[in-house]
Amino acid sequence: VKIFAPNIEQRDVVDHLKGNPTEEKRNVLVESARLARGNIQDLAELKAGEFDAVIFPGGFGVAKNLCSWAVDGKNCTVNEHVNSTLQAFHSAKKPIGLCCISPVLAAKVFPGCEVTVGQDKNVDGRFPDAETASAIAELGCKHICKNVNESHVDKANKIVTTCAFMCKAPLHEIFDGIGTMVQEVLKLA
User: Fold this and answer.
1) Considering 67, 76, 99, 100, which one is annotated as catalytic?
2) What is the separation, in whole angstroms, between the first and last Cα of the chain?
3) Where are the chain's structural domains?
4) What is the reported pTM?
5) pLDDT for position 168
6) CA pair distance 94, 89, nearest whole angstrom
7) Parallel, antiparallel or unpaired: strands 152-154 and 159-162
């Protein structure tokens, strides 16, 4: 297992205690290295031929830094290294795992694919970002409704997705969904 991140400046830095952006500037690779305890490489160096699969975590950083979804929605652009990584694994018929908001990367890069970000309606207030499913459909992809503890496998494209924090759920349910996504990716590898 190796960890990669793009060597780019973050769109913004958020003070998570207050919930507000700050004037501070940070680099995505440097911040990712902090979280990974330094065991990380520049995404530009990733070679799909050296790996059996790729998994993209989610989080608002994906929507701000790996693509511009947070600002542009379905009209977003995808970071060039993220795009080329996805394309390389897809072309090699190797599995791609995506969770939380990161399934929008596949929806943008692979028109016609199937992904899930949970539900397409805000069921019991648990899916406040349910409109993301509509945007995915507008990109020409099929959104598959799944519960937080489930994942969806697009067998034709070898893309496995789960909604994770796109659902307001207890952490153990989010953990279970991510676990099923990882298990399905490994089965396809």
Assistant:
1) 100
2) 13
3) 1-45, 53-188
4) 0.94
5) 96
6) 5
7) antiparallel
Residue 21's pLDDT is 84
pLDDT, residue 13, reads: 83
Low-confidence residues of the chain: pLDDT under 70: none
Q: Please state, as a whole number, how many other Cβ atoms lie within 10 Å of the Cβ of residue 79.
A: 18
Q: Name the DSSP letter for residue 162.
A: E
Q: Which CATH class is domain 53-188?
A: alpha beta
CB under 8 Å to 6, separation ≥6 — which residues? 28, 29, 42, 43, 44, 65, 66, 79, 81, 82
User: What letter would DSSP give residue 31?
Assistant: H
Q: Identify whether 99 is a catalytic site residue.
A: no
Q: pLDDT for 141-185, tens place per residue?
A: 999 999 999 999 999 999 999 999 999 999 999 999 999 999 999
Contact between 7 and 36 (Cβ < 8 Å): no
**Separation between Cα atoms, residue 57 and residue 63, nearest integer Å:** 11
